[in-house]
Amino acid sequence: MSVRTSVLTYILFATLFLSAITAADTSTQNRDVKDLYDIAKVVDVANIIPVAVIGSGPAGLVAAATAARAGYYCVLFRGPRFGGQFVDALAVENWPGVSKMNGYDIIKRLEAQAIGWGMRMDNQSITGVDFSCWPFVLKTSSGQELRALSVIVATGVSTRKVFADVPGKNEYWGHGVSPCAICEAPQTKGCSVIVVGDGDGALKISRAVAFYANEVTVLTQKNMFSVTTPDLSRKKNNTSTVYNAVLKEIKGEHGQVTGVIAQVDGTTQFFPAQWVFLSMTPQAQSDLVRGHLTCSPEQFIVTAPGTQQTSVPGVFAAGRVTCVQYTQAPVAASQGMMAALDAINFLGQAGFNREWSDKLKFQLYDPAQ
Ligand SMILES: Cc1cc2nc3c(=O)[nH]c(=O)nc-3n(C[C@H](O)[C@H](O)[C@H](O)COP(=O)(O)OP(=O)(O)OC[C@H]3O[C@@H](n4cnc5c(N)ncnc54)[C@H](O)[C@@H]3O)c2cc1C
């Protein structure tokens, strides 16, 4: 046997072996889902939701539109903030196919699309879950107990608690104050920019903004930078750093930022700027599911690589609540779509089909009633 034939034979056997393992894995998963989540269990259950989506940001709305369009009865729980963080984005330039639009208008389009496909919107929040039984239990803010065949968690992150006491922060949030350089750096062309923060986050922001802005001033509370990525410490010509600087106030006029007041080495100084980027550590809004789903040490929900599957089959997570690295709305939206497709696949494995959909129609939860 020539060397070439031996190599080809080896590759053939390796491929057959790997396919056999993959097939075995998949069939085990299918068997588990079928055994554990047998659709016949739900015949007498009331208030059923085949696809329940928690959160009305880009991830939740796209998940709901995808499930509803595929013909699945889907209820989306809006939560404390309709549209999520994206409504703070006043000039979105990276939504695919749209040159410039504000985040709220994009959210309204996503909502209209999802409702057009039959999504039911519930204005409540989900206040409690039980994923140890199936159908899963969801408790709403009005005290109702609902039963979901699949759940998509899209509760996003919160960044508002940081710099919470700084006057002007909330007033100019979205009007020159931003936590997101990748979102808004191109809009700083020709502007003076202040970046506030102490670590890698602030340096990443200043690097992104320095491509566009006239000048970038980094205000850091420390007397030196704590940076873990040496490459990021390289300064651009238009970037300077002020050490021992504590942000005191964000000033503005006619609804737009004009600069910041900071205490530097004990003296009060005004730094003029049209943009202020606050380096913030996002807090995953995963409190609801902590203890029920595996979360990372930073409390982001862990999903299986390449899918939106969480540690509980039938429960999926999408958007920023899963993701520390990719902070953009189109990424959240794509994950929402993936989560819905995963949920549809799961429901198929559990035996939920057109026939069951018809059979359960008088047991479905309708937020309008
Ligand atoms: C100022 C600013 C500007 C930005 N600009 C851009 C930009 O230009 N381009 C871009 O791509 N990205 C931008 N982003 C980022 C973008 O907003 C996020 O990537 C996106 O919103 C993440 O979507 P999400 O659906 O994962 O979470 P979110 O949008 O945060 O939505 C979370 C949802 O969960 C709901 N929720 C939370 N808890 C519960 C509960 N218990 N029950 C029910 N619902 C619940 C909330 O009500 C909310 O509707 C910006 C962000 C900010 C803050």
Notable characteristics:
FAD/NAD(P)-binding domain; 5-stranded parallel sheet; 369 residues; 7-stranded mixed sheet; binds flavin-adenine dinucleotide; 2 domains; alpha/beta
Helix-strand layout with pairing:
Blueprint: H1 3-36, E1 48-54, H2 58-69, E2 74-77, H3 103-116, E3 120-122, E4 126-130, E5 136-140, E6 145-153, E7 157-158, H4 169-172, E8 177-178, H5 181-184, E9 192-196, H6 200-210, E10 215-219, E11 239-242, E12 245-253, E13 256-264, E14 267-272, E15 275-278, E16 283-284, E17 315-317, H7 329-349, H8 354-359
Parallel strand pairs: 1-2, 1-6, 2-3, 6-17, 8-15, 9-10, 9-15, 10-11
Antiparallel strand pairs: 4-5, 5-6, 7-16, 12-13, 13-14
Helix pairs in contact: 2-3, 2-7
This protein binds flavin-adenine dinucleotide.
Flavin-adenine dinucleotide (FAD) is lined by residues 54-60, 77-81, 84-86, 88-89, 92, 94, 125-126, 154-157, 174, 178-180, 183, 285, 288, 319-320, 327-330, 332.
